[in-house]
Amino acid sequence: MGLKFEDVLIESLPYIRDFSESVMVIKVGGNAMMGPEAAANLMEEIIQDIVLLHFVGIKTVVVHGGGPEINEKMEKMGKQPKFIGGLRVTDDDTLEIATMVLVGNINTKMVSLINRFGGKGVGLNGVDANLIMAKKKKSQKIVVDGNEEDVDIGWVGETEIINPKILKIMIEDGYIPVISPVATDKKGHMLNINADTVAGDVAAALGAKKLIMMTDISGVLRDVKDKTSRISKIELSEIDGFIDDKIITGGMIPKIRGAEVAVKSGVEGVHIINGSSPHSLLLELFTDIGVGTMIYKKDENEKEAEE
Length: 307
Known about the structure:
307 residues, four-stranded mixed β-sheet, 10 helices
């Protein structure tokens, strides 16, 4: 027999009390909104959960991706998406498509839904108020016929500076900022930045209590073919080993590196969850069961206990 409604509410009480007035960054990946149900329904459910967090006293900031939608638009325009090390190779045309999809489509839809469900959403991207100052990412190394080669991945950026003042003003006034991961460098060149990276950097700059990364899988799996092999917790010192052992690969690498930046900067925990599962955000935050993978740093007491 499942928990009764009143039991769920009582179980959530200590979490709500602990999280009230704290800042949380919610990263919504495009994959999280492209599950077996209609994408529109999934997005509505996710946004409802985010607005609920707001109304129980959590100051929420949303960062979104849009990988599947960008891929779809590229293919319609005769371009084949290409990734290296989990990052999208971004030429001039790809940058234009990504900006159009992220800023002009997804961001607007998410803000509209927040407003519809009673929140006060505000759409932003890294260019607004110099929220994100970026630089072009260096060439990436790939192996070709056993030899390492440097490959330019185009207009892909990495964060240099986050200026969180505008975010702090908005969340203190009860708004829910929604950030698209595009920015400019010092010369004004537009850059596409991995949304997981942006989410980690924003969470670090805000001193957020939690960073939640919503994707289409239930965290880090020891075996990608076995959904029951989820690793519930990963300590910072374990990350490089998991990458070397190919447990963390592809698009999961930027997620984990973004989580690493956030936790090293003082974020209490980063949770990677399956956003296409009903109300996974609420289950992860407000119940004891846990539905994803948490990235965390051992405190001094834990370290001393192991020594």
